[in-house]
């Protein structure tokens, strides 16, 4: 399907509209009853009218890619597709970073061995490097299940490595291009293990309000353990910021906690002390990284939890940058329109505020940050009420169209097909 564009004669701004987007827009309005509302229609109309201005720059490589490996799921815990989906969305919900991790590809005299804790046995496994290349940005997440007793829902274990060869090669394996890892100011793992306890009743559905009172939410526990693999309680850059039992990272201190102002860490060194509170999408919420997760409970990565990962060295994506390529562009807006209204969402679906729903707040942030990161919205920034937002959006979209036409815009032919 062809595309067309309008550009200013001086080249300062380019507007384009993919006709496939228009077809998708019409299709969703006709066939999606749950999104047949004036607000939803106005939002999509505005996006189409605005023509999703594009700078035409090639997209950069995305940030960390969490690749799940089920080869040690020998008990069949993840044979259920619904469990795999819950795991996928959980990992996506905490993967909001843009760091570029160097590939680990052995050759010649440069060799390495990966070391993991097998999730099915709890025994260390040595993975020969000649059969274990790790592509750029990939973090391998090995998952499975075994009996962890009566007190533990799941566990997370870092992967380690043994490297031999040139100094540059050894640094590549250990630091993956992140120099700060060498000074305990960054974290750049190649992989890790998440083990689930099959002795408990697990809920893997989309609706966090429908978790049975005697079941544990797989989404919540998976997101919790993935945050550990990203360094919460496990990275040297985490331990380096603990003073007198308190976490002292500047980003976390700036966010704070109403009931744990000193950001005290639990005795195990891996969780917050007590029931630490924060916010998600501006609403009060218990931290995902508290030590105890109860049955019937769905938790998400809070603003405080995300700030800690920022302090550990992870580079946060701009809100609205769904593909985490460093800017909010046409592809991100296309994702937002396509996923708008999704109820079980992660960052890659356009859920910028982490509440699990792609909605008006996410749309506001994405459009505010469109074209880059200027004017990025903080977690505490107010978001207009939907009615006011739609009115503003339609007016802005019409004005942009009129400005482009009046400024001598002209059709520049086909952009793609």
Helix and strand arrangement:
Blueprint: E1 3-7, E2 14-18, H1 19-31, H2 38-49, E3 65-69, H3 81-94, E4 111-117, E5 124-128, E6 138-145, E7 154-158, E8 160-164, H4 167-175, E9 191-196, E10 202-203, E11 216-217, H5 218-229, H6 236-239, E12 242-243, E13 246-247, H7 250-255, E14 277-280, E15 283-286, H8 303-311, H9 330-339, H10 360-368, H11 386-406, E16 410-414
Parallel strand pairs: 3-6, 6-9, 10-11
Antiparallel strand pairs: 1-2, 1-16, 4-5, 4-8, 7-9, 12-13, 14-15
Helix pairs in contact: 1-2, 2-11, 3-5
Instruction: Please estimate the helix content.
Output: 25-40%
Mean pLDDT: 82
Which descriptor suits the 3D outline?
A: globular
Rg result: 23 Å
Spatial strand sequence of the major β-sheet = 3-6-9-7
How many helix segments?
A: 11
SSE pattern: EEHHEHEEEEEHEEEHHEEHEEHHHHE
What about the largest sheet?
Answer: 4 strands, mixed
Explain what you see.
It is built from 11 helices and 16 strands. It has helices at residues 19-31, 38-49, 81-94, 167-175, 218-229, 236-239, 250-255, 303-311, 330-339, 360-368, 386-406; strands spanning 3-7, 14-18, 65-69, 111-117, 124-128, 138-145, 154-158, 160-164, 191-196, 202-203, 216-217, 242-243, 246-247, 277-280, 283-286, 410-414. The longest helix is centred in the last third of the chain and has 21 residues, at 386-406. Residues 1-27, 51-61 and 374-417 have low confidence and may be disordered.
């Amino acid at each position: 399907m062809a595309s067309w564009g309008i550009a200013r004669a001086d080249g300062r701004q380019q507007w384009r509209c993919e006709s496939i987007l228009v077809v998708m827009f019409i299709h969703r309005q006709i066939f999606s009853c749950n999104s047949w509302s004036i607000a939803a229609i106005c939002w999509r109309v505005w996006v189409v009218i605005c023509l999703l201005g594009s700078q035409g720059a090639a997209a950069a490589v995305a940030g960390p890619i969490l690749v799940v490996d089920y080869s040690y799921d020998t008990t069949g815990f993840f044979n259920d597709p619904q469990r795999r989906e819950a795991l996928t969305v959980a990992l996506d919900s905490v993967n909001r970073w843009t760091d570029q991790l160097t590939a680990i590809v052995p050759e010649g005299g440069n060799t390495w061995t990966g070391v993991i804790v097998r999730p099915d046995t709890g025994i260390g496994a040595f993975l020969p490097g000649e059969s274990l290349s790790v592509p750029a940005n990939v973090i391998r997440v090995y998952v499975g299940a075994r009996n962890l007793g009566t007190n533990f829902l799941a566990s997370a274990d870092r992967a380690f490595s043994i490297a031999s060869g040139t100094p540059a090669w050894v640094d590549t394996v250990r630091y993956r291009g992140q120099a700060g890892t060498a000074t305990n100011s960054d974290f750049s793992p190649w992989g890790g293990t998440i083990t689930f306890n099959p002795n408990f009743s697990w809920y893997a559905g989309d609706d966090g309000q429908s978790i049975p009172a005697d079941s544990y939410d797989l989404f919540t526990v998976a997101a919790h353990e993935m945050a550990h693999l990203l360094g919460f309680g496990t990275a040297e850059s985490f331990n380096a910021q603990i003073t007198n039992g308190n976490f002292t990272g500047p980003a976390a201190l700036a966010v704070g906690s109403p009931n744990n102002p000193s950001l005290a860490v639990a005795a195990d060194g891996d969780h917050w002390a007590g029931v630490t509170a924060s916010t998600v999408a501006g609403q009060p919420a218990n931290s995902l990284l508290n030590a105890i997760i109860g049955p019937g409970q769905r938790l998400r990565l809070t603003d405080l939890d995300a700030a800690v990962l920022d302090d550990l060295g992870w580079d946060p994506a701009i809100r609205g940058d769904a593909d985490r390529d460093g800017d909010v562009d046409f592809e991100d807006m296309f994702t937002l329109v396509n996923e708008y209204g999704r109820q079980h969402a992660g960052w890659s679906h356009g859920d910028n505020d982490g509440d699990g729903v792609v909605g008006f707040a996410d749309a506001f942030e994405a459009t505010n940050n469109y074209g880059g990161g200027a004017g990025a919205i903080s977690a505490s920034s107010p978001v207009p009420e939907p009615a006011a937002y739609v009115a503003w959006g339609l007016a802005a979209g019409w004005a942009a169209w009129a400005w482009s036409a009046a400024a001598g815009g002209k059709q520049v032919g086909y952009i793609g097909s």
